[in-house]
Amino acid sequence: MSQDFYDYYKFFEIEPTATPEQIKQAYHRLAKILHPDYYPDRKFTESELEEMRVCFTRANEVYQILRTPELRKEYDKEYYARKQKKQEELKREEERQREEERKREQERQREEERQKEQEKKKTQYQEEYKTHFEDTRRNPYGEEEKERARYYREHPEDDETILGDLKKSYKEIRKEEQKHSFRKRHRRINRIFERNYESEIETPKDVVVFYLKNGVVHVVGETLFQLEKLSYIGKDTVPKFIIRNRKLILAATLTGMIISFGGKDNPDPVNPIIQTENQNDVTLIQTVEEENSNITLIRNYRIKNGDTLSNLAEDSYNTVRELKWINELSSDMIYMGDIIKMPYKVKKEDLQYYSQVIQTNEKSLYDLAKEYETDIDTLYELNKESIQEVKGVYIILSDTIIVPKFPSRSEVDTIKTQNTKSY
Known about the structure:
single chain; 423 residues; mainly alpha; Membrane-bound Lytic Murein Transglycosylase D, Chain A; two-stranded antiparallel ribbon; two-stranded antiparallel sheet; 16 helices; elongated
């Protein structure tokens, strides 16, 4: 088909099914309008007359084609082919718009489902926490144990030998302890603690603080749980009370021994303290040197088909837990099209594999950050000499800047291997 195809029927303002008589009438009507004598009271300029002559010439060409059956048949063939192609293009465009609308609706529904699921889990955890710990506080061992202890106090004739009673008491207490085992108690504390505080974790420093808080909660919770057992001092027999509180008694005994014998046989108690402080200083210096030798590049990555959280974590030298904390994810599920933040902790000597120099082409820093999947702070960190900040506005002072690139771990290893072989 030619590129300069012209709609003759539209030019004559007739239908494609017009008869030869209708074509003739349309031609005469148009020829009459295009003749200067049709406007006796009007004076035309030279350009207007030239335009009328061109239109009249076009009208003659169109009339000659449409009045000739063979030429009209050939023209109609191309006319209907173009018309059908245009209809197909319109249909494809409508289908594309419907598909985009369907995807947006599906994404909206998925987001609503995720929010509902998070609210449901949050409510479930809160109810579980409230029910379990209130029951534990009121009755950590159950009514069955209380009844058994009361029975033996009222019926001493049913007591067995001392050894048999100890074995039986130990089995009964172990059976009760399994209902509230150490693992179950602290696993529940972990779930509740992470649910309430994981949104506050953004940096590695926050991770350290999080684990310190978590450890304190575990220690305090376990201490209170063990101390609650002391309330049975008037209900248990002496052997049973010792068995029930064996961990607390052992901890108190070890603490007393450490306090009693810790200061003996130590001729110079100052040196160990100085040595410990020096070791802490060395560790602190190593940590600071390690932080100074690394640089963190932030990547705003749009999830593609086939991506998994574990693969993304491996390529960015992170853990799945860290990515979940940084992006406030409640599960390992990620969805195509979502954008997640991935910090790349790169050694300064390896920065050459994770950066490149580009021409700014008068683009703003925000446009460059969006184009190279990063943020303003990362670009500023890489180009402190080429970028100036004035009252929150970043001004690029050079025609070229350094931007990050984010190859996978395997790609970097391959490049390093090739460089080693070249030497």
